[in-house]
Amino acid sequence: MKEKNSELIQKREAAQLGGGKARIDKQHAQGKLSARERILLLMDEGSFQEIGMLVEHRATSFGLEKTKSPGDGVITGFGTIHGRVVYAFSQDFTVLGGSLSETHAQKICKVLDLAMKNGAPVIGLNDSGGARIQEGVVSLAGYADIFYRNTRASGAIPQISVIMGPCAGGAVYSPALTDFVFMVEDTSYMFVTGPSVVKTVTHEEVSSEDLGGAKAHAEKSGVTHFTAGNDVECLRKVRDLITYMPQNAMELAPQFDSVLFAKEKLNRIQNIIPDNSNLPYDIREVIDCLIDDDTFREVQADFATNIVVGFARLDGRSLGVIANQPSSMAGVLDIDSSRKGARFVRFCDSFNIPLLVLEDVPGFLPGTDQEWRGIITHGAKLLYAFSEATVPRITVITRKAYGGAFDVMNSKNIGADLNYAWPTAEIAVMGAKGAAEIIFKAEIAAAEDKEGKWKEKEAEYAEMFANPYRAAERGFVDAVILPEETRSTLIAAFKSLEKKSETLPKKKHGNIPL
Ligand code: HXC
Predict the structure, then answer these.
(1) Residue owning the nearest CA to atom 33 of ligand 1
(2) Residue 433: pLDDT band by 50, 70, 90 thresholds?
(3) What terms describe the molecular function in GO for this protein (predicted)?
């Protein structure tokens, strides 16, 4: 028995080494952890249970028979994060560049299937050059098996992808199908094809960093939702984010009993909106003054900064916040901000996370660039996402709610449950200046003092609509509340909506304008 046991121990020791000590040392020298170190750090200490450690590939072409490595370049299994079960895989770049073989794919599919059957989140730590080139079509089919499962699991269990090295091909398409993507600065890259292929095909010279580094995807493409300075910080952020989510679409996110809220924020919130309604302010200050202390986790913070989205807690409960940002392009809605907002709304709705909308929006961005790139279709995504959402939904209009954007930003008429406005709210088809120019055009043209007439008419329109009271008279807002009353109002309002039950008409699935 001793002999047999020591055989197992030896096999386990071999598996610990992945592609060998020299390659692990190289990984460390680049500031990266090994695949095993990562998955152990991700999980609660001592909770990780590995499956598939002894799996080996069966391929023989191009000398592959000499490259067998126990585990075949991916560590798979389950464990807990803050006591809740999660499934995970961690690709090992030291084994054939973490490339995906037939068996490597089967191991990932196994954890995806287990996560689905058991209703638990799945987290992929990606560090892979994509499909294993030597295996040809079987590795492509392996990726297709993963994509299929990612898609079937979408909206059923949370799926998080962490990019921790150079990832290409299928190693970026699987993450793109999941809910949230994390990237590590300076050591992780995502591209469909790397710089050398780009050079051959388009003659463009571009570095890995510029093409698909964390900064490029955080600011330009919006492909990544979160970035971190190194592997350790990144995994800590993943562990934190998961606390805002339920295990699956049938459950609620965990509730936290200890709630901290600094009372001074009730004073601070009264002075955030500037007297001049054309001046900017940072909506994140309003968010901070409403939610439990230090609980805001902004998603895609550097992309489409004219809208702010993220998770927060209010009285210990998870909340999805969607807020126009007056300090970036005056908070206008454009293609990118509509897409960003819509995707976040749909995640929250899939996983029973109530929505809080803070509205200060001058409208949709006009111009040929936006029109030709399809602002109509993309703006409709946000409208569709809100209209479709059945979770509790509350809107607070802090200032401007102009034009179509009033409708889009979770208006009562597209199904919001409770709509509030601050006394500073302005709810109109457009700003007073533009409105006066259009509806009093003839009168202004006929006047001797055109400028004076315009100003007079602008004031008349502002008097009528630059306030929340016309909307309150008609019930489009349910109450006008003071900024300092907002937190307590929201706590009571979300509590009243806790048992909300609403179902969509029976259908296969809707047809969101993609
Ligand atoms: C087999 C691979 C591999 C792959 C890397 N390696 N990618 N082996 N299949 N896809 C091996 C290398 O041969 C090398 O082995 C080791 O991993 C490390 O790779 P390096 O190139 O030395 O590392 P680095 O310079 O850091 O570059 C990493 C990289 C690059 C950017 C990922 O390796 C690369 O461009 N790989 C190919 C990417 C790709 O085109 N994949 C196919 C995508 S198609 P040795 O033994 O020399 O150390 C795909 C289809 C899915 O995935 C469908 C999508 C819809």
Answers:
(1) 129
(2) confident
(3) acetyl-CoA carboxylase activity; propionyl-CoA carboxylase activity
What do you get for the CA distance between the two ends of the chain, in Å?
61
| CA atoms of 294 and 307, how far apart (whole Å) | 20
CA dist., res. 92 & res. 111, Å (int) = 16
Which ligand 1 atom sits nearest the alpha carbon of residue 133?
9
- Mean pLDDT for the chain overall: 96
E strand spans, 283-339: 297-299, 307-314, 317-324
The pLDDT tens digits for 264-292 are 999 999 999 999 999 999 999 999 999 99
**Residues contacting residue 163 through CB under 8 Å, at least 6 positions apart:** 126, 127, 172, 175, 181, 182, 183, 184, 188, 189, 190, 224
pLDDT digits (tens, 9 = 90+) for 112-126: 999 999 999 999 999
| pLDDT tens per residue, range 41-77 | 999 999 999 999 999 998 888 888 888 888 999 999 9
Active-site choice (73, 169, 331, 341)? 169
Domains belonging to the chain, first-starting first, are 2-242 (3.90.226.10), 265-429+467-496 (3.90.226.10), 432-465 (no CATH)
| Residue 120 falls in the annotated catalytic set | no
Active-site option among 401, 405, 421, 466: 405
Q: What are phi and psi of 130, to 5 degrees?
A: 90, -155
Query: 170 an active-site residue?
Result: yes
d(CA 78, CA 359): 41
Assess whether pLDDT exceeds 90 at residue 358.
Answer: yes
ipTM rounded to 2 decimals = 0.97
